[in-house]
Amino acid sequence: MNSEINSPSQPLRGIKIVEFTHMVMGPAVGAILVELGAEVVRIEPIGGDSTRKLVGSGAGYFPMYNRNKKSICLDLKSKEGLTIARRLCDAADVVVENFRNGAMEKLGLGYEDLLKTNERLIYCSEKGFLSGPYENRTALDEVTQMMGGLAYMTGPPGRPLRAGTSVIDVTGGMFGAIAILAAIQHRHATGRGQKVSSALFETTVYLVGQHMAQMAVTGQPAKPMPVRISAWAIYDVFETRDAEQVFIGVVSDGLWQKFCEAFSLTALAADESLKTNTQRVAQREALLPQVRELIKRYSKAELVPILERTGLPFAPIGKPEEMFDDPHLAASGGLGATVLPDGRATRLPILPIEMDGHRPSQGGTLAKPGEHTDEVLSAVGYTVEQIRDFRSRQVVG
Description:
40% of the residues lie in helices and 14% in strands. It is α/β, with parallel strands linked by helices and 397 residues long. It folds into two domains: 16-207 and 333-392, Rossmann fold; 230-318, formyl-coa transferase, domain 3, CATH 3.30.1540.10. The strands form three sheets. The protein has a six-stranded parallel beta sheet, with helices on both faces. The protein has a three-stranded antiparallel beta sheet with strand order 7-8-9, with helices on one face. Strands 11-10-12 form a three-stranded mixed beta sheet. Helix 11 (253-262) crosses helix 15 (300-310). 30% of the residues are buried.
């Protein structure tokens, strides 16, 4: 067997994936798997996926979740375009789609259709809801954050607030990738593929499961995070002398002693009524103003080295744009080189894992719409003349 296939940094080399996706959730599945070495061919409409043209908060969707994928443009409204798509699926290990329920079936590209000619196929549907009463509803990341309790937990009481990124789309894509990997392992044992699904709503509920468990354990509904009863007395955002903000968490009795030592808080360290976390939580209202006054004496530049030495959990409040220059990401290779569609170079986060001490990928490219059409069609047996004919009639692009 090819040693590259067993390489820890490219464990999915040799796996062929065809994507019928748009926006974030579906592309996130392929974005994960392509960084692990799979070949991902993205089917786009003639002229390219409309996600490429989004502005505002959607402007980063395409470059973040479509690096290293091959692009082929197909007219799926034409009989010949569907025939080409079917041939690509017949040669694939995995198909990923995230369109409305029934859309792929209407095209003859549903799981049952493709299974007839590819029994080893793993078919991943990324949906708004898994099977049940809601399954035909239209869903978005924000919709299910509102439905599933996440927005309620994020915002202050009476002001539900979506999380500050497409957390459900991306996490739903992660669960889809996990399901695909499990199905690949199952296929090793049985020789057969299967259909797998993940969904936005169920992903949201899984993420708020800790709050459901809290209700089950305590008998009390979880309060929104901004007004929750903290498990620790010092677990908050504090302002520095230069109007910067730093989160500090004192999450054990040992760390309380280190915190006191670091800032020469001899009296507080010796106070028997503050020895345990439970005691400190009981006195939180009196303790926090003292800590706020203490932190306000330091600039951010003065404070961070002190906290670093203590071993306490802490974090200067960062912004996404500051991550481009983060020294840890720079040193660890956490950002990979990417060339944007307009030719500008940037660096974007790569898969946040290490395998055998190495990051699986080191960056990527963004294909132009249809950039790999000839290559992909040639690989499944179409001739140069056929491809030229398809292009002249706008079956492919």
